[in-house]
Amino acid sequence: MIREKLLSALAHEFRARIPQFKMDSPDYQMILYAQRDLETWLRIKWGAETPYAVYRRLERYLLGDYKRRVDFRTFLSVWLERWLEKWRERVKILPKMPKVPPKHAKLLEKAKKLYREMDHAYELKEMVIRKLIEQGEICMTGFIAENMIVNEIAKRLRRWGGDLEAPSIDPLDILNSLIPRIKRLPKEKGPLLFLKVGVYL
Length: 201
Description:
By secondary structure, the chain is mainly α. The protein has eight helices and two strands; from the N terminus they run H-H-H-H-E-H-H-H-H-E. The chain has a two-stranded parallel ribbon.
């Protein structure tokens, strides 16, 4: 029920900003992306352990007294405005995904497999998301974190000629390698994620 109310509030904010926004079209995927990012952002900011804890706290604002509901709508309006700015800056929409050279595609596939199999992969992703949010990134942070981790593993595979196994990957070493790049992001413009969806903004 709370999640549905949050989605409804986000839909209202989207329609207010994008006149051509249609709920019964691929545009709706944007609401789902924004909802997931807001949930992640609140979880990090509130120090909540789980999404469930986030929604329990959100209940006070979405079902609370008039002032709390108004305060949350004001916050949501500001947050979504920033999210849309980051969407336009960090996400590039393509009619079709670009072709990747076979050798590089194979390297990325192995890197993804190693990432899925490595110890503490979830904790590593959480730390990268946290660092991204600390630097002001609020849009698609989960996807961007995974991309950064996979690309870092792929870089190591390339360096070591593909001779790398999941147990030998040190998550802390990966994180320490990514932190300088993440810290530079506020000074860098341009996409960090490429999507093939039916949304053009």
